[in-house]
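Hello, quick one for you while I still have it in my head. Could you read through the record and tell me how the tokens relate to the sequence? No rush at all, and the record is pasted right below.
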Amino acid sequence: MNTAYRSLHLTASRLINPNPISSSLLHLLAAPRRSSPLRRRFLATPFSSSLYIPMAAGDDQVPPPESHLLEKQFESFRVQLEESAALREQIRAVVMEIESATRLIQANLLLVHQSRPIPEIIEKAKEKIDDLKKFYGRLAEILQKCPGQYYRYHGDWRSETQAVVSQLAFMHWLETGTLLVHTEAEAKLGLNSLEFGLETEDYLTGICFMSNDLPRYVVNRVTAGDYDCPRKVMNFLTDLHAAFRMLNLRNDFLRKKFDSMKYDLRRVEEVYYDVKIRGLISGGDPPLPNVQDQS
């Protein structure tokens, strides 16, 4: 009886619903889900503090405070970099004029190797010194816009200043036979050691550059018949080399230039030796210094 009734009920159910859901599935759906400890802890946590769901960008969305701080910081960086770039452009424009004036002085001084009259050559080269003083004055005015930033921009005119000192020292030696001291170099360029001065390393490097021109000058003077010139240059370079040895120079660019002075002195000594053994100078000259083992 029960079997017949169940078959009749199943047939009627199929006629009403061709895709019936099994009773077992209905039982699973209707059965209450057991709550695990992790799920209970998640449900107990406030929703706003445990889960962040990004919302679509809209007019009413407010950025976090950190975004404002970051934007403000990089905006100040942008302003600083633009101001620094503009300042460097002004400095480079003046430096190019310094470099141009230095090339003209060097071109005039090269004529001493052709046995031209030295006073005439020096007088023509000195015409550009006033221009150099004017250019360095303009540099000082530019740096007044950024107090305390001298060494930040010093590299923009360092090499040009070293070349200027080299030419000024060579002119001074041709006139007097002595070394152009640091204070005299500053005075020629109109520099103030307190605000905008001549750096000691730039001065020393320029003096080393000047010594590189002396061996060629000696050879050309001997060729022109000035046999006393090697002795004068040798004595000058000997004293200068001894003075540099008082400095504790490290292995940097200035040290390399000082080492080149040793070879300049050696070349001048060789010329002096050749002139002396040929009897072209008197025999009362001082003996040759030995710099073979100096470093």
In short: The first helix runs from residue 2 to 16. Residues 172 and 178 are 7 Å apart (CA to CA). Residues 21-31, 47-53, 291-295 have pLDDT under 50 and may be disordered.
